[in-house]
Amino acid sequence: MLRSSERSEKHWVRHWVLRPVVTTVAVLYFLIDAVVFGVIRPFAAWVGSWPVFARVARWVAGLGPYPTLVLFLVPLVVLEPAKPLGLYLMGTGHALEGVVVIGTAEVLKITLVERLFHMSRDKLLTIPAFAWGYVRVVRWLDWLKALPAWQAVLRAWRRVAEAARSLTRAVRGWAWRFAKKG
């Protein structure tokens, strides 16, 4: 049985040491995911519109919940470790290789896992353990997105995106005027 001081010490470590570290790592992880997803989404949608994906969707629709779960987990398990690998490459002076690894893994993950999840979410949620985990992950993501740090990053991202749109409009206007004069 733990003494009161030991419980207090463990609570202090969990609350004041581990929680900020885990939260920071999670925010960075999901921030990288969100940034890459925002950039890659149009490309993934274009690839996802290929006829082969319609055939795959019909095939997946015919699978049961557990084969669908395996199909969903295999690419996720294979592709998720690519992010830390890419960050490692970037941290060891191989920035281009790291970006290529992360970018390739994200494109594949978004086009495969995301589409597969959306095609078969209802079927996957019939598996009790998956539904239990899904509810917890969604709650945790909602909590994470409600954090002031997340909101600050989101506001900064929106300002950067708006500045990029303004710059794009300005460059297009200049290019149009230049082409009209020439």
Can you give a write-up of this model?
By secondary structure, this protein is an all-alpha fold. It has a domain at 4-125. It is 90% helix and 0% strand. Helix 1 packs across helix 5 (95-124). The longest helix has 45 residues, at 4-48. The termini are far apart.
End-to-end C-alpha gap: 84 Å
- Overall mean pLDDT stands at 81
Q: How can the largest sheet be summarized?
A: none
Q: Sum up the overall morphology in one term.
A: globular
- Helices and strands, in order, run as HHHHHHH
Tally of separate helices: 7
Unreliable parts: none
Could you give the topology of this structure?
Elements: H1 4-48, H2 51-61, H3 65-79, H4 82-91, H5 95-124, H6 128-146, H7 148-181
Features:
mainly alpha, 90% helix, 0% strand, single chain, 182 residues
Short account of what is shown:
This protein has 182 residues and is an all-alpha fold.
